[in-house]
Specification:
The radius of gyration is 24 Å and the shape is elongated. Strand 3 and strand 4 form a beta hairpin. The protein folds into three domains: about 40 residues; about 110 residues, Homing endonucleases (Endonuclease I-creI, Roll); about 70 residues, Homing endonucleases (Endonuclease I-creI), CATH 3.10.28. The protein is about 45% helix and about 25% strand. The strands form two sheets. It has a four-stranded antiparallel beta sheet. Strands 5-6-8-7 form a four-stranded antiparallel beta sheet. Helix 1 packs antiparallel against helix 2, helix 5 crosses helix 8 and helix 8 packs across helix 9.
Length: about 250
């Protein structure tokens, strides 16, 4: 659809003064996409490069919430991934829809680490995808790469390890909230000739990546939490003292 050239000139002048695309579109009653195209063409004509604002700590040197980052790192290594391609850049963390507290915690952590990017939620079958839109998440999660995490090397950089060392429980909490659970197991014993049932709590962590599992178990070792390999993909924490520690700092999902 062709628009009156005078309207376009007025709109471009407003855009140059800092008026938003939405406001200009509403003022003239034209689609926002058209206004965005006019802005793009005007910038191109003037040789102006558009650089979206960012509060990325790695690019700006800005101080950020290390405690929230340690938790978010655990979530990312477990159930997160980054999409970084033309016109599509975001961090996604997939949360079980049964745990609204976990969904809120994931969104809060994204806001605390980088407040500027827009964060949204997308309902999927059985889960909620929490998304933060900026390609700068690749700066904060250099583990991003092609293919699945368990098919490639996953190792923390020095600055990441320093944050995990300073906030180990948040890192463990993120991993457990993504790929772990607290459950109740049971067994039977003969007592005075009578078989009785006993129940006991246990934490499980399940991940196909030996590197990610190794990051968890190394952190648990530093925290004094005893663990065992249940099988190739599962770590079990069942000792009473260790479960008590986990309950104190992690607890069940909610």
């Amino acid at each position: 659809m062709e628009h009156n050239p005078s309207i376009r000139e007025e709109a471009v002048l407003l855009l140059r003064r800092g008026v938003t695309n939405r406001t200009v579109a509403d003022h003239f009653g034209i689609p926002r996409g058209t206004v965005g195209w006019w802005r793009h063409q005007d910038r191109k004509h003037r040789g102006e490069t558009c650089k979206p604002p960012t509060d990325c700590p790695r690019c700006t040197g800005r101080a950020f919430d290390h405690r929230a980052y340690s938790y978010l790192l655990g979530l990312y290594l477990g159930d997160g991934h980054i999409v970084s391609r033309y016109k599509q850049h975001h961090l996604s963390v997939f949360c079980d829809a049964a745990w609204p507290g976990l969904i809120d915690a994931a969104e809060e952590a994204m806001h605390l680490v980088m407040p500027l990017p827009r964060v949204g939620r997308r309902q999927r079958q059985g889960c909620v995808e929490v998304k933060s839109y900026t390609w700068h998440w690749t700066c904060l999660f250099p583990q991003h790469g092609p293919g699945r995490k368990h098919d490639r090397l996953i190792a923390l950089e020095g600055w990441q390890q320093e944050i995990v060392d300073a906030h180990p429980w948040e890192f463990v909490r993120g991993l457990i909230h993504s790929d772990g659970c607290r459950t109740t197991n049971w067994t039977t014993r003969l007592v005075g000739g009578v078989r009785k049932r006993y129940e006991y709590p246990r934490y499980f962590f399940t991940n196909k990546s030996d590197d990610i599992t190794g990051l968890l178990t190394a952190t648990l070792d530093r925290l004094g939490v005893e663990w065992k390999r249940a099988n190739a993909c599962n770590v079990s924490i069942a000792r009473k003292e260790s479960v008590a520690l986990m309950d104190l700092h992690i607890g069940p999902k909610h």
